[in-house]
Amino acid sequence: MKLSSLTLHEAREGLRARQFSSVELARAFLTRIHELNGALNAFITVNDEEALAQARTADERIANGEDTPVLGAPIALKDVLSTRGLRTTAGSRILENYVPAWDATSVARLRAAGAVFLGKTNLDEFAMGSSTENSGFQVTHNPWDRTRVPGGSSGGSAAAVAADLCCAALGTDTGGSVRQPASLCGVTGLKNTYGRVSRYGLIAYGSSLDSVGVLAKDARDAAIMLGVIGGGDPLDSTSVDAPAPDYAAGLDGNVRGLRIGVPREYFIPGTQTEVADAVRAGIEQLRALGAVVQEISLPSTGVALPVYYMIATAEASANLARFDGVRYGLRVQGADLIDTYRRTRGAGFGDEVKRRIMLGTYALSAGYYDAYYIRAQKVRTLIKQEFERAFADVDVIATPVSPTTAFKIGEKADDPIQMYLADIFTLTCNLAGICGISVPCGFDAAGLPIGLQLLGKAFDENVILRAADAYQRHTNWHTRKPMLSLTYQGC
Ligand code: GLN
After folding, report:
1. CA pair distance 268, 74, nearest whole angstrom
2. How many alpha carbons fall within 13 Å on the CB side of residue 5?
3. CA of residue 250 to ligand 1 center, whole Å
4. Which DSSP string corresponds to 396-408?
5. DSSP per-residue string spanning 282-351
């Protein structure tokens, strides 16, 4: 078997059994990155030398008998997570040359556990987008079809996992940015409960919605990664003060009696028929394994999109105020301080980021605050309560992840509303602060992957991971690989 196609848990077995070293593993991935990144643009920064140094240290630790779930494992990091000494751009020209002096907590925990950081992956600028086309640097291509987007905003991480450019990757999810690219690239994507993983060092977009998540080759790997990065953190007061359970240990393959709710509002006209069919077939598979399936209703689903864009842009407008040319990154000197702010932000931010700062500033301005922001917060509470009521009767809610498979690069780039609709099935999870996972459940006629979303109660990651893992024990959608060499012949 090729080293680069190993899952995280297979890599760990191989490392422990001394079948290969961490240095050999890192070399295999770095070689592949250098072969394919030109065609995919999944990475913004490749961390060649440091990765090999980390791999050498991991090999020494392994030789000394140490063992952690990610010791020596090659991991990619979305470039919105701060990495000590390694450029962190957030996909924005305004941070093009920014090198943080600290690690995000999720990164620090992986580092302490001996992971090898292959590099930083591409994203929509400040994680604002659904296609990774809003990056200030490059457009990432979907490994299944290079003319299509990988989804977003964690499109670089999703493409990297799908193309075997890393064992697993970290992403972030504010309204769907782990699950939607996972779906469009045919990988597994876990969005954790708000508070489960520290947000410290994650460059903030919408602080009440942001979460750090995992893109992986299967649910077992997602469970392993969450076990390492999860748990309370004194540096993030919104993280919940409890250690992460051993999620991987809870994967027993058993979904007998698991109550699955299927909300009728998530099967709506406009959804690609093949997507709805594959998702329904996935739910049937879980029923065949012993789950109990029932239809449910989440009536406020239809208003979630405007509520999300009101809250996310309001929070973004406040969070992005810090990029002023004084403290971080780019500075374009003006005649005076205000002129410097204007020039710096005018030159450093892309169009979508500017659009959102304007929308958010408007929503928060005197006179409109009550009409828009406060109202949106009230409806958010209704959405949250609806989920709580639904979860009184069911353990898991099953839906599509994205209404369509991967769309063409450029297809929605000039139509923000169409782009915002790409997250219609994912953003309720963030508004409610619950957890969700995207698992591959089929392909459309064009050979593009389809994802099934399993939503769980707050802090029920163990439940959705167990269901996802059970599903993957009986299906092989997640093991299919894009035909990379054929796709790129002559490119
Ligand atoms: N596409 C959504 C947005 O642009 C979600 C992005 C995300 O989850 N970071 O806001």
Report:
1. 40
2. 9
3. 30
4. EEEEES-SSSPPB
5. HHHHHHHTT-EEEEE--GGGGGHHHHHHHHHHHHHHHHGGG-SSSSSS-----SSHHHHHHHHHHHHS-H
Select from 177, 203, 207 the least CA-distant residue to 195.
Answer: 207
Domain 3-298+384-487, CATH number (from 1.25.10.10, 3.90.1300.10, 3.60.20.40, 3.30.70.2120) = 3.90.1300.10
Would you call 402 a catalytic residue per the annotation? no
Calculate how far, in angstroms, residue 134's C-alpha sits from the geometric centre of ligand 1: 11
Mean pLDDT of 379-392: 98
Helix count (H) and strand count (E) of the chain?
16, 11
Sign (positive/negative) of CA torsion 101, 106, 108, 110? negative
Amino acid at site 311: I
- Beta-bridge partner residues of 449: 443
Place of tokens 């163990």: 462
Residue list, ligand 1 pocket, CB within 6 Å: 127-130, 153, 173-177, 205, 312, 423
Q: Partners of 230 in the beta sheet? A: 197
> How long is the chain?
491
| pTM beyond 0.90, yes or no | yes
pLDDT tens-digit series, residues 230-277 = 999 999 999 999 999 999 999 999 999 999 999 999 999 989 999 999
Cα dihedral 354/359/360/364 (nearest 10): 140
